[in-house]
Amino acid sequence: MKPSIRRLNTDDEYYFKEGCFILELSNTPDDPAVSVARARVRPGVSTRMHRLHGIAERYVILEGTGRVEVAGQTARPVGPGDTVIIPPQCPQRITNTGTGDLVFLAVCTPRFVPDAYEDIGD
């Protein structure tokens, strides 16, 4: 890994099959230990129930309100400043319960790769 600055380019945001918009902030093979993405969920939307194989994830809530379900636990409310810790293989989804976008950082260790994503239902 070399020192660098990655500049934000909002045009790089894309829709992911999970049901949210993703903007990769840092996710490269030369830094395999971690990835950081901004996720955005529209009002009233729940992401698909899914799990990540071999990857721990943290949701750092920046804007909006929601409910998060992890590992079969009852959905719990989340809002700005909350951090949700999600161990590898844990079923998870998040629902936007507010009137504006729910925006959070998804910090993955090791870095997120699409092959680790498994859709496990609605």
UniProtKB/TrEMBL annotation:
<dbReference type="InterPro" id="IPR011051">
    <property type="entry name" value="RmlC_Cupin_sf"/>
</dbReference>
<feature type="domain" description="Cupin type-2">
    <location>
        <begin position="39"/>
        <end position="108"/>
    </location>
</feature>
<protein>
    <recommendedName>
        <fullName>Cupin type-2 domain-containing protein</fullName>
    </recommendedName>
</protein>
<dbReference type="InterPro" id="IPR014710">
    <property type="entry name" value="RmlC-like_jellyroll"/>
</dbReference>
<dbReference type="Pfam" id="PF07883">
    <property type="entry name" value="Cupin_2"/>
</dbReference>
<dbReference type="InterPro" id="IPR013096">
    <property type="entry name" value="Cupin_2"/>
</dbReference>
<dbReference type="InterPro" id="IPR052044">
    <property type="entry name" value="PKS_Associated_Protein"/>
</dbReference>
